[in-house]
């Protein structure tokens, strides 16, 4: 696993961008910018330098603002709004979240032992995915709990040409299935929400309207089950720079991906508990893959034509992502601004108290 940013994204320590003279910058991904003085108001500081900050984020993909002392959700929201005035509060993703302010939510309510693989936020919505993502650390876990970052442009360049060409030529189909409010107990370890929790309504007509607007193909099934299909290219050209980036959820939603991610984290943390969970999940995933058709899975990814993606290709994608991943431990008050078109994020397992919040646009 890489612990330094891709060389093509490095900014030498001490180099300065226009309007950022006198500010300590540390090159790489993320670009780290430290407050020029204790107590500097981040939102006010950003307003005076917005154009330069946007240029820096476009180049590096992610900027970590450290030492600005952002201690309240509203202060975080104010800073994020300077970069992205069009903050949103609608969320059709899979992770359970809790609202902290009008446009700030907990990043996830998943259990602390559960690793979240690297992904561009809601990439299964492709052009409708957020363009900007912001994280804020209110409480840092004593062990783990980092938000790793991955340069998806470098991932695409580093993929084996055979794997890359297969995805380029065939595209991907994301499958997400949800039980409804009356769908009985949820015993599926791969499912975190029901469809009324995703859409915020039990009105099926409204669900159909939102799904159509988002570009999803929607199928109602027995016992209030809802299945969504999102079919897209596997990559996306950056809307401003034109650079090609890996841009899909195969490394998250493919049945072979989650057990592999859990096993990787178990080895990294030397955790017997995670190792046992990874072995169990691998057995469950293998059984589901053999016994349940792709379109009946809680979530899965196939090629756009419905063909199965080989497990070996998924392993290679996951390995390539981790070779281009950087882990920077959180500090209280940190704010991270991500270009969602070029940089992926995730979460490492943790112990202790942790509160990391998110906003998006």
Task: Kindly describe this structure.
With 361 residues, this protein is α+β, with helices and mostly antiparallel strands. It folds into two domains: 7-153 and 326-360, Double-stranded beta-helix; 156-320, no CATH class. Helices cover 31% and strands 23% of the residues. It is built from eleven helices and 20 strands. It has helices at 42-47, 50-60, 73-83, 152-158, 161-170, 195-199, 204-214, 250-253, 257-269, 272-291, 311-323; strands at 25-26, 31-34, 62-66, 99-101, 104-106, 116-119, 132-139, 143-144, 149-151, 172-178, 217-220, 226-232, 235-237, 244-246, 299-303, 325-326, 335-339, 343-347, 350-351, 355-360. The strands form five sheets. The protein has an eight-stranded mixed sheet, covered by helices on one side. A four-stranded antiparallel sheet has the order 6-18-9-16. Helix 9 runs antiparallel to helix 10 (272-291). The longest helix is centred in the last third of the chain and has 20 residues, at 272-291. It is globular, with a radius of gyration of 20 Å. The model is unreliable at 1-16 (pLDDT under 50).
């Amino acid at each position: 696993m890489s612990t330094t940013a891709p060389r093509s994204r490095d900014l030498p320590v001490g180099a300065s961008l226009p309007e950022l003279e006198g500010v300590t910058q540390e090159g790489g991904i993320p670009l780290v910018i430290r407050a020029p003085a204790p107590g500097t108001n981040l939102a006010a500081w950003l307003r005076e330098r917005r154009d330069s900050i946007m240029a820096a984020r476009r180049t590096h993909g992610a900027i970590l603002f450290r030492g600005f002392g952002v201690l309240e959700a509203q202060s975080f929201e104010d800073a994020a709004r300077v970069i992205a005035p069009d903050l949103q509060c609608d969320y059709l993703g899979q992770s359970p979240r809790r609202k902290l302010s009008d446009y700030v939510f907990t990043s996830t309510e998943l259990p602390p032992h559960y690793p979240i693989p690297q992904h561009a936020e809601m990439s299964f919505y492709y052009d409708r995915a957020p363009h900007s993502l912001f994280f804020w650390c209110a409480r840092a876990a004593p062990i783990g709990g980092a938000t790793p970052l991955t340069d998806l442009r470098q991932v695409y360049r580093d993929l084996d040409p055979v794997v890359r060409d297969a995805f380029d030529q065939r595209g991907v189909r994301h499958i997400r299935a949800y039980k409804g409010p009356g769908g009985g107990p949820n015993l599926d370890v791969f499912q975190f929400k029901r469809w009324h929790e995703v859409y915020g309504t039990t009105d099926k007509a409204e669900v159909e309207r939102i799904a159509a607007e988002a570009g999803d193909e929607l199928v109602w099934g027995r016992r209030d089950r809802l299945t969504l299909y999102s079919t897209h290219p596997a990559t996306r050209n950056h809307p401003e720079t034109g650079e090609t980036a890996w841009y899909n959820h195969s490394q998250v939603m493919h049945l072979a991906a989650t057990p592999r991610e859990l096993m990787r984290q178990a080895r990294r943390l030397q955790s017997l508990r995670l190792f046992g969970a990874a072995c169990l999940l691998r057995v469950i995933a293998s059984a589901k893959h053999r016994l349940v058709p792709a379109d009946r899975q809680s979530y899965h990814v196939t090629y756009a034509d419905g063909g199965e993606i080989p497990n070996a290709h998924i392993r290679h994608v996951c390995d390539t992502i981790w070779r281009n991943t950087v882990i920077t431990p959180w500090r209280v008050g940190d704010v991270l601004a991500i270009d969602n078109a070029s940089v992926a994020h995730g979460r490492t397992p943790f112990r202790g108290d942790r509160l990391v919040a998110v906003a998006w646009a």
